[in-house]
Amino acid sequence: MSKPHQEKTEPAAAAARPASLLAWDSAGVTDYRDLIRANWDDRVPAHVASADYDVRRFAEDPEFIFGVVRFDLPLLGDVAGLREVHL
Asked: Which of 5, 9, 72, 79 is the most exposed place for a label (fewest CB within 10 A)?
């Protein structure tokens, strides 16, 4: 005996997803890098507005290393030549 068809309803949280993530659901996506980049770009304003990230210091001093990264630096190994490392 088959089950009757039921419409899928999305929770309110799913309906409020950022525009960058809505594209994720599109069929035919072959390069997820663009979607991942858009997702991170959506987060930039919150990071810039937060005093915890001290974005001004990063902009003023290219050699600045955030405390968390300094703590993890011995575990990272050689990062010479890399533009960025995401922990």
From this structure: 5
- Secondary structure string (H, E, C) spanning the chain: CCCCCCCCCCCHHHHCCCHHHHHHCCCCCCCHHHHHHHHHHHHHHHHHHCHHHCHHHHHHCCCCCCHHHHHHHHHHCCCCCCCCCCC
Residue 6 has, within 13 A of its CA and on its CB side, a CA count of 5
Question: Alpha carbon of 81 to those of 3, 67, 78, 85: distances in Å?
Answer: 58, 21, 9, 11
**Alpha carbons 10 and 4: distance in angstroms, whole number:** 19
Q: Name the pTM for this structure.
A: 0.43
Report which of 45, 42, 43 is spatially closest to residue 20, judged by C-alpha positions. Answer: 42
